[in-house]
């Protein structure tokens, strides 16, 4: 039987973003999108909820929440998990990883939740309430393919 870490080697992780709760992109989200589209990855820390282990190199999928639901970004985890102050309450700790976003799209070009439910039905797209939920390797490959199609359009 394969080790758990072997199973998750080609997995992904969902990172939730609700601009109604946090919208602290440098300049603006649109400015960061322009930079990434210009070939400059955007590296930042992102909360992973209660998850305590995420492998380096894991696909990180940015899920837009709070209105225009859908995948709007892809990145790669570039650090081990670490503790820092929670973004909403600095008196509380939270677990983070550093993510290098190499693809971001404006919200109008997102992969909508309805399409995600058809192509990657293993993920409960309507019940992603926090960051850190894993996507198993096979569904993650399908999501990668869908993302590539979205960027090609």
Question: Would you give an account of this structure?
Answer:
The protein is α+β, with helices and mostly antiparallel strands. The protein has a single domain (9-152), classed as Roll (ph1033 like fold), CATH 3.10.590.10. Helix content is 24%, strand content 31%. The chain has four helices and eight strands. It has helices spanning 4-7, 29-37, 113-119, 137-152, and strands at residues 12-17, 42-47, 59-64, 70-77, 82-85, 93-104, 111-112, 133-135. Strands 1, 2, 3, 4, 5, 6, 7 and 8 form an eight-stranded mixed sheet that branches. The chain is globular, with a radius of gyration of 15 Å. Residues 1-5 have low confidence and may be disordered.
């Amino acid at each position: 039987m394969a080790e758990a870490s072997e199973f998750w080697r080609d997995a992904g992780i969902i990172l939730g973003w609700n601009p109604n709760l946090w919208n602290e992109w440098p300049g603006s989200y649109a400015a960061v999108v322009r930079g990434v589209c210009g070939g400059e990855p955007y590296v930042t820390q992102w909360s992973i909820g209660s998850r305590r282990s995420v492998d380096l190199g894991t696909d990180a999928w940015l899920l837009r929440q709070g209105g225009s639901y859908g995948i709007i970004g892809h990145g790669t985890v570039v650090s081990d998990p670490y503790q820092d102050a929670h973004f909403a309450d600095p008196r509380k700790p939270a677990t983070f990883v550093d993510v290098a976003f190499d693809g971001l799209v404006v919200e109008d070009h997102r992969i909508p939740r309805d399409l995600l439910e058809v192509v990657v039905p293993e993920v409960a797209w309507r019940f992603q309430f926090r960051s850190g939920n894993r996507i198993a390797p096979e569904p993650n490959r399908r999501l990668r393919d869908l993302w590539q199609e979205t960027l090609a359009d």
